[in-house]
Amino acid sequence: MFDRALNYPYAAIEEDCLFTGGTTIELEDDSSLIDRQAVLAVGSNRSPEQLLRKFGKNETIPVTKATLRDYDVFYSAHIASYGSIPAVLGRSDGTLVDVSVTWLLPHQLERMHQTEALGKSYDYGESSSLRIDLGNDRSAKSIGCYLGRNGCANFDGGPVVLKEVMASDRKFPSADQKTILTRFYHLNCKSKSFEKWLETITEDDDFRAQASKELASSAIKNDLSDFEVI
Fold it and tell me: Is 190 exposed, middle or buried (0-12, 13-18, 19+ CB in 10 A)?
């Protein structure tokens, strides 16, 4: 029942690929990247499972691997409608984090915007100054990203990064989704079991909004000045 909440950010393909027909195939060359906007996928958007939810089986989207310097992938200070505490990009000087890049056509970017709660949980920004290796001698005029509006969730006085996202020279503790949700539950709920609490989170918009408000009240703001919000 709670797989979607607890399994975030879902399994990612470890090689460059094409998401097409609802599944993935090998990316044979970079010709399909032409005239597309590069957008960082730091959380679930790197996963074919999530792309299928968002785009169905009728879209083709190249997804490539990249490494980004001086950033890491943190838990956000809000809760998604399906019960997860999702990912946000944040500064981490000296860290080199593995990310994915979705290459989107204009109508695909518009669809992605619709799925990202723009103006509520995220802003969309683009940067031309990131220290990023896109692989295969690739380049992009700008790199887009969904930027967390509330900042990073604060646990025990600091942010926490996603354990499932690989990085070197990490500066912050990591945890998986179940661990971080359970920690937040113990801090904020005394009257329900964890299962009942998570069920209420997914079914009651007001309850979830209040839980997100609690996360946001102690959030850690992060420097995202490399990006210009569009």
Answer: exposed
Q: What letter does residue 124 receive in the DSSP assignment?
A: E
Domain membership of residue 130 (yes or no) is yes
**CATH code for position 111:** 3.10.490.10
Whole-number Cα distances in Å, 77 to 5, 41, 60, 219: 15, 18, 32, 6
* Cα separations in angstroms, 145 against 30, 38, 40, 230: 21, 9, 5, 10
* Strands 161-162 and 132-133, bridge-based pairing: unpaired
Write down the pTM of the prediction.
Answer: 0.96
Q: Is residue 228 part of a domain?
A: no
DSSP code, position 88: E
Structural domains in the chain (count): 1
pLDDT per residue, tens digit, the chain (230 aa), is 699 999 999 999 889 999 999 999 999 999 999 999 999 999 999 999 999 999 999 999 999 999 999 999 999 999 999 999 999 999 999 999 999 999 999 999 999 999 998 999 999 999 999 999 999 999 999 999 999 999 999 999 999 999 999 999 999 999 999 999 999 999 887 788 999 999 999 999 999 999 999 999 999 998 999 999 99
Q: How far apart are CA 121 and CA 109, in angstroms?
A: 17
Give CA–CA dist 165/10, Å, rounded.
10
Confirm whether 229 is domain-assigned.
no
Range of the domain at 9: 3-222
Residue 230 lies in a domain: no
